[in-house]
Amino acid sequence: MLENFHVSESFKVIYKEGNNLFEKLAPEQIRTIRKRMIECILATDMFNHALLFNTFKSKLESYKIVNGQNVDKLLLPDSHKDAEIKNYEIQQMVLSECVHTSDISSPCKDIKVCDKWLELVYVEFFNQGDKEKENGLPVSMLCDRTNTNINKGQVGFIKFIVSPQINLISNLIPEIQPYIDNIRTNLKYYEERIEEVRSVI
């Protein structure tokens, strides 16, 4: 899993001499930060997207968190049984969802940035597909340069992944509305070009 690699490399960099951000922290603080970092990074794995999305959606609905209202209800009262554990879990859920949303947020950016990012993503995808073919492996979805419609793939990504995710997060952070506006603009851009043949090197 690529995300496990990201976790491993992150801590290699942090613990490299001269980089240690944790050197003045207590061991318990380091354990908490490390745990949070690992959970946030693993949340970027698209395999976990549906579960995280549905769990977070259910939590926001249960507290009636809409358009920034009732956010304070995410904080449980101190008298609540196991309040510290519950608060940690809710905080982690919010952190993980925010990091995951950021990870898939390229369609939220200006179209020039969004489209350049799309191109770079498909360079990676197609290189992976080429390697899979070379090794006699099944080619992963969207990784076959001979039959993948890039713009159509982007339309699906925006409609079924990014737009629902960013709209969900906007209930917690309504200030992100400009990014939602960008998504709508960018979706229209790719829908109008859905039959266009694009290639990347």
How does this structure look, described?
The chain has 3 domains: 42 residues, no CATH class; 54 residues, no CATH class; 96 residues, no CATH class. The mean pLDDT is 91. The protein has 201 residues and is mainly alpha-helical. The protein is globular and about 55 Å long.
Number of domains: 3
Provide mean pLDDT, rounded. 91
Q: How far from one another are the termini?
A: 25 Å
Q: Give the count of helical stretches.
A: 7
Please bin the fraction of helical residues.
Answer: 55-70%
Broad structural category = mainly alpha
Number of strands: 0
Strand content: under 5%
Unreliable residue runs: none
Q: What is the ordering of alpha helices and beta strands?
A: HHHHHHH
The biggest sheet, with number of strands, parallel, antiparallel or mixed sense and barrel status, is: none
Alpha-carbon Rg, integer: 20 Å
Gross morphology: globular
